[in-house]
Amino acid sequence: MKTAMLMIATSVIAAAAASPGAAAQTGGGHKLVKAEDIKWSPGPASIPAGAQVAVLYGDPGKDGMFAMRIKVPQGYRIGPHTHPKPEVVTVLSGTVRLGMGESGDAAKAEVFSAGSFFALAPGMPHYVSMDEDTVIQLNSNGPWSLNYLNPKDDPRQKGQ
Predict the structure, then answer these.
(1) Nearest Cα to Cα of residue 98 among 60, 63, 73, 124
(2) CA pair distance 53, 35, nearest whole angstrom
(3) CB neighbours (10 Å) of residue 107?
(4) What averages of pLDDT result for each successive group of 10 residues across the chain (160 residues)?
(5) Which of 7, 25, 28, 90 is least surrounded by CB atoms within 10 angstroms?
(6) Which residues contact 3 (CB under 8 A, 6 or more apart)?
(7) Which long-range contacts link 19-25 to residues 24+ away (Cβ below 8 Å)?
(8) Contact 103, 78 (CB under 8 A)
(9) Model pTM?
(10) Segment holding 8, helix H or strand E
């Protein structure tokens, strides 16, 4: 039975991959995106300038699951903040320094290199900085938001 199911799943995946337009095909609850087809856009106003995002699945602004990649330059930093929903993060390239708590003290942050993973509970204060150009994949449920502990860290407050 397991072998038959595996053969069916393999056939479905092979057929989808061989079909025209499979790179960003959607429908029937699936989506396939090839690396070369990822479209990067400027990050949302809630994170500091310089970030680029690519939404791979779902819509971070709406209810439901989503997968989003975030690409940031060396030296990028997001001050202490929380999220109302869990975040599941994989470091795809580069290095993330993740600190837990409200201090924002980079010396207390742990280093997560490419291939590392972390999951954060809703409401858990944390902060991040990057030692080099870095790409992460963030999976969560929308709507996604970010709440800074110090309003001065919030880029949406700049110039007001």
Answers:
(1) 124
(2) 14
(3) 7
(4) 36 35 53 94 96 97 97 98 98 98 93 98 97 97 96 85
(5) 28
(6) none
(7) none
(8) no
(9) 0.80
(10) helix 2-18
